[in-house]
Amino acid sequence: MDGIDHLADERNKAQFDVDAMKIVWAGSRHAFEVSDRISKLVAADPGFRKDNRPMLGRNELFKNTLRKAAYAWKRIIELHLSEEEAAKLRFYVDEPAYTDLHWGMFVPAIKGQGTEEQQQKWLPLAYKMQIIGCYGQTELGHGSNVQGLETTATFDPQTDEFVIHSPTLTSSKWWPGGLGKVSTHGVIYARLITDGRDHGVHGFIVQLRSLEDHSPLPGITVGDIGMKFGNGAYNTMDNGVLRFDHVRIPRDQMLMRVSQVTREGKYMQSDVPRQLVYGTMVYVRQTIVADASCALSRAVCIATRYSAVRRQFGSQDGGPESQVIDYKTQQNRLFPLLASAYAFRFVGEWLKWLYTDVTQRLQTNDFSTLPEAHACTAGLKSVTTTATADGIEECRKLCGGHGYLCTSGLPELFAVYVPACTYEGDNIVLLLQVARFLMKTVSQLGSGKKPVGTTSYMGQIEHLMQCRSNVQRAEDWLKPSAILEAFESRAARMSVACAQNLTKFTNPEEGFAELSADLVEAAVAHCQLIIVSKFIEKLLQDIPGKGVREQLEALCNIYALFLLHKHQGDFLSTGCITAKQASLANDQLRSLYSQVRPNAIALVDAFNYTDHFLGSILGCYDGNVYPKLYEAAWKDPLNDSVVPEGYHEYIRPLLKQNLRTARL
Ligand SMILES: CCCCCCC/C=C/C(=O)SCCNC(=O)CCNC(=O)[C@H](O)C(C)(C)COP(=O)(O)OP(=O)(O)OC[C@H]1O[C@@H](n2cnc3c(N)ncnc32)[C@H](O)[C@@H]1OP(=O)(O)O
Ligand SMILES: Cc1cc2nc3c(=O)[nH]c(=O)nc-3n(C[C@H](O)[C@H](O)[C@H](O)COP(=O)(O)OP(=O)(O)OC[C@H]3O[C@@H](n4cnc5c(N)ncnc54)[C@H](O)[C@@H]3O)c2cc1C
């Protein structure tokens, strides 16, 4: 526009090396270089334009998504992009599409649950996109309760086939992304029945559409489930409905890594735990945690830049008004979100490591860390997506009225993001899984079995049950040991209190149901401890770059102390800290906000988002917000004509009628 950087003064205030922080954020120099190159490539390509999405009707919107997905694939092939680069390209194209499920769930399901042979047969086809797949688990009647799924896969020994069937309306598959209009195949979850016996839910590769003309195969009824929350947004995705009427598939299309059905129809189980059937969900939950940091950082980048541009009140003698970012209330809402974005980034990195580690162990039949991996992925998915969805909405409010405009980018970001609280496991249902894991851990404390990994803090249960924080001055809250002890003792005491209350029930399941609200809170406390401790561990690493460590320390302290303030009821009622110490934490938070304030713009610049990816006038890099908002308004289709369509039919007759009435 005017070529001036309206945020230059803010950028000049930075007290750290932004380029070094970009590398910390990306994870490595290599990751930064790939991300930087691919994001610029996407931003510069008009084929990936996305600013028109809110204006398009469903059919147009969907066709546009198909075009983009095909174009993205064309570019991936033309440019010989690696798997890593291709994934980045899809990320920066930033449009929910069937490809997310193909690459994100269909391929991982085959990799995780298929035998070597099955992988060799199906993966090359999927990698070349000669088949397109979805993940067909949820049904109209059951989503969370996977064991309640009704679709059946009955083995027919005469033909060596499974017969896939939807026996009831509620057994219709409902929700799978990419299913409605695109997928040719699906990994479909169904109850395996052999010789009249029900062996529970298993995965099957089922062809759904003809590879010649895309029509549904015989016995298959398939379509889209209809418009979802928000214009544009997730409506680029064809979430589908699917019914089977005795559809036959060859026996070797059951995913047979975990269990097998022989030619004779005998059901056999490998040594691997049955829960590996749920393995794809563990994988995806892990990726969702890393994605949370992307979505939150994007919203925070928009809200931070705009808060520095926006001025309200405080003008004296005709001088400039105050930047809204200087209001302490704005900082108290914004900076903890900025800190959370960094915290989720680092816990996401760690979770990726944990997942890789458990996968390697599984390959050598070591299943010992699977329960922890399940609890961590489930719990962190829940806590980070809830905080991110709430955080995006908070960022919208932080941008005042303009945040409500689609051109702010925030309404669409929220609408696309908010189902993350539900998909891949409803967040409450997942926290209850964490609570079960915690109750088991507590119950084993007296047995001599040493808790390991993320529950190792429970090894010092006697200390944690009676310790009192020794914080005396606000600065004492800057000590990682003070923070860790407070978070560990809060989590331990909440879990132990639940475990003690559970003993009052003769039926443990009844007790679990009755105490489930408290159990969820104990699970949240445990997960928040993991996030805080992984941030602190990150700071123990070598962190190059002038001032980078200092900024990260401030953000880590903000994250922890803000949580402590928000959940002070927990910390006080469990006696981990005193009211005076809670108040000192608050004093420290204020001073941390002042420390972050001059660095705020540079801290969001470190995310290295292009204007294309941000998709927000309020968050644009140069901060030249008002001319862009003004210009964009005139591009709205409603402004194509000065007098609106419909004037002659609906406005003019009204006005004329009022004139006649007035004359009477
Ligand atoms: C990149 C992709 C883009 C994202 C796009 C998003 C697309 C969205 C896709 C989807 O949503 S796919 C569908 C996802 N569906 C769910 O997440 C369903 C949630 N429900 C469940 O996961 C499970 O049913 C449950 C809630 C965990 C309960 O399962 P179940 O009743 O079978 O188990 P329990 O009796 O409670 O537990 C038994 C035992 O198993 C352990 N366990 C449970 N899940 C797992 C797991 N995933 N991995 C390992 N272990 C697991 C559980 O802890 C119990 O252990 P023990 O207590 O017996 O030791
Ligand atoms: C955008 C989107 C994309 C999706 N994509 C796919 C896909 O690709 N493939 C696929 O298979 N599925 C997909 N799903 C389905 C998704 O996985 C399920 O919706 C999700 O697992 C939640 O299950 P549910 O809908 O049955 O919720 P319910 O379980 O019906 O939840 C309703 C309410 O009941 C509560 N509740 C349920 N059980 C308990 C309990 N035991 N204790 C306490 N409270 C409980 C929940 O907390 C919630 O408040 C998608 C969903 C969405 C929204």
UniProtKB/TrEMBL annotation:
Keywords: FAD, Fatty acid metabolism, Flavoprotein, Lipid metabolism, Oxidoreductase, Peroxisome. One of its GO terms (biological process) is lipid homeostasis. Residues 17-132 form the Acyl-coenzyme A oxidase N-terminal domain. The active site is at 424 (proton acceptor). The keyword Protease does not apply. FAD binds at residues 138, 177. Transmembrane segments: none annotated. Residues 480-656 form the Acyl-CoA oxidase C-terminal domain. It is found in: Peroxisome. Residues 278-439 form the Acyl-CoA oxidase C-alpha1 domain. GO terms for molecular function: acyl-CoA oxidase activity; FAD binding; fatty acid binding. The keyword Oxidoreductase applies. GO terms for cellular component: peroxisome. Pfam families: ACOX, ACOX_C_alpha1, Acyl-CoA_ox_N. Its main location: other. Its cofactor is FAD. Belongs to the acyl-CoA oxidase family. This is Acyl-coenzyme A oxidase. It comes from Camellia sinensis var. sinensis (China tea).
